[in-house]
Fold each of these.
Amino acid sequence: MIVALSAWGVIDAEVAILFRTLSGLRHRSVHFNPKTYDSVREDALNAITTLRDILQKQFSAFGPQPWFMPGTPGVCFIAKDYEENPFVRRFITPSAVYVGPLHNTRITENGSWQFVDWPPDVYGAGEISDEQYRQVFNDRTPESLVPLDGPHVPATILGPDDVLRL
């Protein structure tokens, strides 16, 4: 399974090593040997920290994962090349908000974040590359952001049905 996930680009080499470490710990636990009594606590702690590291590296909202567009300080955007990736569609997209580079955010009265964006016609027809998106995002000024008092539209929050349609 580790080889397949690596070959499909779902996990990188570092996460594959962590899975192999976890596999070795599992193997020692399942195929019991009286010698495991000597290291049961250490093995359990190693398994927990290894699993934590896997989750942190594979499912983090920030990091060097290839499905995130690099070069956008403080925020993560899904790279266009990974929008159709099955792993991204299943695990990353459901918590994503679809926004343009000039979107804005505010905290509502109940303390939750609200993402607002320009109406689609402001951005024009067609698509832009990750490089163009990054440039517009990084070069934006307060005046270019969608004003919080309008006109704006709520950003699209992708739900399970959207993920299935992707």
Amino acid sequence: MSALRVTVCQWPNGPEAIARAWAQLRAHVQTYESHCVLLPEMPFAEWLAQSENFDAGRWVAAVAAHRSWEARLSELGGACVIATRPVDFGNERLEEGFLWEPGWGSRAVHVKTALLDSKGAWEPVWYRPATPDFTAAQLEDTDAEQTHVGLLIGVELRHEDGLRMYASSGVPFLAVPRASSVASADEWLAAGVTAARCAGAFCLSSSRPDALDVSSGPGWIIDPSGTTLALTSEAVPFVTLSLDTTSVKRTRLANRYPQPRSGGMGSICAYDSPQQSASAKARPLGRCAS
């Protein structure tokens, strides 16, 4: 098998809304036989960073909620799941990216290294940034070729360190769980397009609302040329596409994607050669409205 069926989502806030979304996601994954589901940042609790005052009780409740929901990930059948969770590591609090697979369980694959510190996103109040380590994760429970995934959590998408590492290692997929608002949706999508083009990889993102809006803006699937293949919406919160992983390899070999230059996000995708267009193919499998 050379195609990977991936599902991205537009996730809600609040325990009742999350429970409804979970039931809808289960139905969608069963219908479209997803191989991999990307959830947003810390999907199973309220967005902690909306408050600039740390509350130990809310932190403990969020950690417990994620543990409880992770025990239910098998309800998504054979699909692997990528998301983030709040964790305690000794005396430190962190936001940890994890990969769950039916045959392997849950394992940490990345810890968030860059944090927002602004209204609605007081992240340093709640957890600290980790030492950068952008090692791609291998999906073990799939027969698809080239199943390494590079995880960029939230604002890491806008920082060049991780993108440079993933571009140099040739990962075919970038997974971006995030918390955002409708007001910033265009900026996030533009960053996703830039990342896909620079890495020569599919860029996948799932979203949840931050404190500034009741909606998060869309999740997306972008191909290596920077073409947006699919967007979620309030009416269509889940989208699944079948992505041709072998075409990513062919595209990278044919076009010899250059390495991103240093010098900030504005220059991260400055190419030494003319802009290339990717030949990667994606076959839409369908959308599941709420």
Amino acid sequence: MVVRFGGATIIVAPISPMEMAKQSTAAVNRPGISKGSLMFKRTSDLPSPRSLAALGRFTGTALLADSMNALGLHGVIFRPMSFKPFYGRDNGKQLKGVQVHLLDPAGVNLMAIQFLFMQVHHGLYPDKNPFELADASRIRMFDKVAGSDQVRTLFAKRMRYDDVRGFLEKDLQRFRATAGKYLLY
């Protein structure tokens, strides 16, 4: 999945680039698909997160990946990358961003990652506030996905995940207990 945020593009991939390539050999054979990124046999072959940040060709994405890795989040590492799409709005443009590697998908807090990414991005690029740059329809969609405008209002004050963490997690344990009865696996 490709997500654009501020000046960055995030590729969310629950498996390693090599595993993605095995599932789609056409991706490996198309020129430019892996240009500017490293390929590994297994996610476990990845070097330390600090090493990954130093490998980026673009200072901004390396800094962003390094800052995310510095948070020490369990089960996930971030690495800078660049790619050139072959279709769509950005066809032929060199895009850059941060690739997200989920090493322990069951143990990763995906909700926290997206808010921590916005927090880190804001710390690095305070003039690129997504709530100020987005048009009204995108703000409405954010509020719908979050369930209300309270999440955005709380977060936008200081752009800190800690400001919304309690609000987002207040009903989590009760929800898990209720939902657990209906899970098939």
